[in-house]
Write a structure and sequence with these properties.
mainly alpha; 7 helices
């Protein structure tokens, strides 16, 4: 069964990472973003630079320390193991975030190569396969991560609200006695909410980026296979299937497919 023609369809694989970049921008990673063509860092405003430094100092650096020092304030074994588990998770999120920040140049290179591969998808069969299979599958992966992390956030909120006592969301150390007044308690909760949202956003973007990238790589390999399989079976027949011009055209198609393969290896 032949695929329906999609004359106005275009492939833009970078749409899968819009949500990642929007969250990374909120987290301050925009200061590391690079142009996909020149690989030079993009300029950012002073206000955004200040936000990036302040937010990451409070959320990426101080928050794991705040949780780790809470281990020493545990009153029983249950709180101790809970505090250790949360601290390790928070430190892991921080490490992954710094690793992602160090890979912004490679991400820009990947996006540039992706645009080159996207431009090669012009055949109706490939366009149909991309729109109806690949695009839906990758967005389903994104939805899965969104639902998963939304569920984590909701469960933490439900656990805290159902406790029925004045306590912190997570065990942690603070430079003031939050039990003394409602103001200190509200300040402590606001800081923990900020740190929790900041780090769960880091984890969401970091964890969802790799699976979507691998699925996109697999998709372009599949599309390349479709292009290669058509070589020798399609093309103009005005000069005869075995004419020199027709053979040269098929050879040019093969050379372009080889370049696509090199780009995929990159």
């Amino acid at each position: 069964m032949s695929a329906p023609l999609l004359p106005n369809a275009k492939v833009n694989s970078l749409e899968f990472f819009h949500i990642n970049w929007n969250v990374w921008k909120m987290l301050g990673l925009q200061i590391f973003k690079r142009d996909v063509h020149t690989l030079q860092r993009l300029a950012v405003s002073r206000a955004y630079f200040a936000w990036s430094i302040a937010a990451n100092f409070m959320g990426t650096i101080l928050f794991p320390i705040h949780l780790a020092m809470g281990i020493y304030e545990s009153r029983n074994k249950s709180e101790l193991f809970n505090s250790i588990s949360i601290s390790i998770t928070s430190i892991g999120a921080t490490i992954k975030f710094f690793l992602m920040a160090s890979k912004m140049k490679q991400i820009a290179q990947m996006e540039a190569l992706t645009q080159v591969l996207d431009a090669r998808v012009t055949h109706p069969e490939e366009l149909w396969h991309y729109q109806n299979r690949i695009r839906l599958n990758i967005f389903n992966i994104q939805r899965m991560f969104s639902i998963l992390y939304s569920g984590v956030a909701a469960s933490v909120a439900a656990l805290y609200l159902s406790s029925g006592e004045r306590r912190l969301i997570y065990p942690g150390w603070l430079p003031f006695e939050w039990r003394q007044s409602s103001g200190f308690y509200a300040l402590a909760i606001l800081y923990q909410l900020f740190g929790f949202i900041f780090q769960i956003s880091q984890t969401y973007t970091n964890d969802s980026f790799a699976p979507k990238s691998l699925c996109l790589l697999s998709a372009h390999i599949e599309l390349l296979y479709k292009r290669v399989s058509r070589i020798g079976f399609e093309g103009p027949n005005e000069d005869g299937g075995g004419s020199k011009a027709a053979l040269q055209q098929e050879e040019d198609k093969l050379n372009l497919c080889v370049l696509d393969q090199i780009n995929l290896y990159e």
